[in-house]
Amino acid sequence: MSTQTFHLPDVGEGLTEAEIVQWRVAPGDAVAVNDVLVEIETAKSLVELPSPFAGTVGELLAAEGDTVTVGAPVITIAGATEAQDASAGLSAHGEPAAAPEPDPAGAVLVGYGTGAGATSRRKRPAERTETVRASVGVVAKPPVRKLARDLGVTLADVAPSGPAGEVTREDVVRQAEQASVFRNIATPEAPTVREHTIPVAHVAPPAPALSPGREEAIPVKGVRKATASGMVRSAYTAPHVSVWTDVDATRTMELVKRLKASPDFADIKVSPLLIMARAVIWAVRRTPLIGAAWIDKEDGSAEIRVRNYVNLGIAAATPRGLLVPNIKDAQDLNMRELARALEKLTLTARDGKTSPADQQGGTVTITNIGVFGMDAGTPIINPGESGIVAMGTIRQKPWVVDGEVRPRFVTTVSGSFDHRVIDGDGMSRFIADVASILEEPALLLD
């Protein structure tokens, strides 16, 4: 038994640093092997780090909000005994340990929380206070409370639907969606702060001194830092070209309505994004360079790598920022399987649980700007890809059909492409193919 120091590990995504988001323990707490010590935010995900030791928490060596480099000490544990089977998955210094034997109580993966059978640590006074407060006020589990904070939902405003009168995850999501619908109905008051700045790293004269009360500075880190770096790299490396076209999507809306009424899709959310995803997959097969990648080689030469599969990325706006998880081998999924994959991707991203692996290896991306009421855009290509497609809002407009003006559901399909990989005819043919499927989904039966 001794005092051990736990060092920030590389949680399997090649990170160099991470931010301390929330300590789950305090000095003096008793911890068991696999108890969650701290929640960190890397460039791509929120990760819970479990303890490789059993003992008593000594000192927290980093504060919440600090950015810590991999290998730096973060916490000490007194009277520490390390699990003999390395069930925590980490050695005393945060390095990967030998794989543990299967645990009948529930296997544990580093960074994904503890298993059902893991020993629970004693509650701190603050946690006990929170439990009492919840019993006389709003009843909700800690993950639901965190989701409410992330989505900006006040729990007291949520109507509970749980069997014991508790607020459920679905209640919070429903409240957030309703708030989004009605957000723009009332005209908000003018903010008291007229300006705020988001500093970015660039070569420029020193920024003027901050004016407290009139300006605020938001540190660039975590997902925002990774997004900014990737977008700058993409915009200044790949020569972007954008094209777009208007589409009569009336038959797409009719198909969505039929699928929603079908018993086969009764338990799955169906939206026009499903038909858009199928259209993109179909169109990539006809123009494979859309899913290709430009590769700069070490000898100074370059190659275009054509990928004969579709890892379909979906740009998702989450409380943590922009994430682009992708559906692996989407070309092998039928309509129901694709709908299920889209639903899972959306819910996982909304909960902030998208893993780094789900954000790597994409081949082409869809950004659904229509959910924000936008008609079209010129999106920036996701790094490592050569094309991104934007789906605009679908609304009724006058449209000429057989020489007559009729109300039809119309949308705009736009896209940006890496001109090093794709020429104008290829990108135009691809967008035209996507548009043709939205106009006549029956072509997917071909």
From TrEMBL:
Residues 139-176 form the Peripheral subunit-binding (PSBD) domain. Gene3D superfamilies: 2.40.50.100, Chloramphenicol acetyltransferase-like domain, E3-binding domain. Keywords: Acyltransferase, Lipoyl, Transferase. The keyword DNA-binding does not apply. It comes from the Bacteria. Its EC number is 2.3.1.-. Pfam families: 2-oxoacid_dh (PF00198), Biotin_lipoyl (PF00364), E3_binding (PF02817). It is an enzyme of class 2 (transferase). Its cofactor is (R)-lipoate. PROSITE patterns: BIOTINYL_LIPOYL (PS50968), PSBD (PS51826). Residues 3-78 form the Lipoyl-binding domain. Belongs to the 2-oxoacid dehydrogenase family. This is Dihydrolipoamide acetyltransferase component of pyruvate dehydrogenase complex. It comes from Microbacterium flavum.
